[in-house]
Amino acid sequence: MSITPAGNPLRPVWWGVFISLGVFLALFLAQSLWRSHLEATWPNLKVAKEQDLREFVQAKLDERIDRQRAIAEQVLQFPEIKKALEERTPTNLGAAFQRLERYSGKEDISIDVLDSKGESTVWAGRSIVPLFRPRNDSLKTDVVVRVSQASLHRYLSVGVRSASTQLSVFVSRPLETSYPVSNRFVSRRSFAEELLKESGLSARFALEIAQRDTAGESAFAVPLRDRQNNQICFALLPVPTVATELQKMDRLFEAARSFFGAGALFLACILLYARARKVPRRSIRTMVALLLLWGLRLGWKLIGFPSFLVGGFLFDPAIQASPFPLGLAGSLGELVLSALAVLATLIILFLDTLRWRQSSPEVDRSSSSWLT
Length: 372
Known about the structure:
The chain is an alpha+beta fold. It contains eleven helices and eight strands. Helix 1 runs antiparallel to helix 7, helix 2 (79-86) runs antiparallel to helix 3 (90-107) and helix 7 runs antiparallel to helix 8 (282-302). Helix content is 56%, strand content 15%.
């Protein structure tokens, strides 16, 4: 015997309920199996994830080095720079400074132009080169990469030398705000901040590694190299943990369960309301509709829909929270959903009242007699 007989217009809804509910329950089993598998294979996975982190940070650093090198090569072509170093008059030097200031402001960088003797002659932003004092032998190479400490920042500097003019240009950008100074009081536009925003990776950088940096197995050191395979600094990256990985996967499973659970609840409410419409009494139909509406609202709240899917500030209790019962106003998103449910309740009651007045002759007569 078929549970959903042929010809039933609600047959697709029935199948939707069964499928959604089945997937919802199957996700619990899948989550349990995944947790067991991850815990059993974690030692090998940890090594692989550490290697992935090494390659990821090195690739991002290579991109930044290439970008700064391209900027340095562009600056070498500025005619104001060549003219200022050939004829060091106040007018020429002023024009060169202005040209670099306009360019560095647009790119948010510091620029140092060095003459053939390695002296910083023209610059824009904070002059970084004096912090590491490039040696004469380092200026003879085509590209130089240095990491230096400057007050509240560590800087990544990329220098390019022109073989024809013997000029060198160093382009510098913050690598990180010096740990552990609070980024609240200084600029946060750094390589470390970009890694945190793009991938959620919290990285620190150091010129040398001390034993305390990797104590407790909370972080591991990764030597970072330039394009010539020269070591320039170390990155201190958080050690992957099985708890972190389990938490990531739990969030994915919770989001999937909330989606299919919400679908099952919604389709089940459709089926129940379709049956309730066959009841002859209007008051009972209205009561059932209201119970289904708020049952759906509470059900979605209990399974975390749509907060697990949307997330962000909209469902962040730190932004807005209320002690309203059952957490129906626990965030901006929950408050909006509850307000929509209240609005739907008022619409249902209003429409039911209109139908009642239109279908009740006694109400019409009493209203007309009262008006006369």
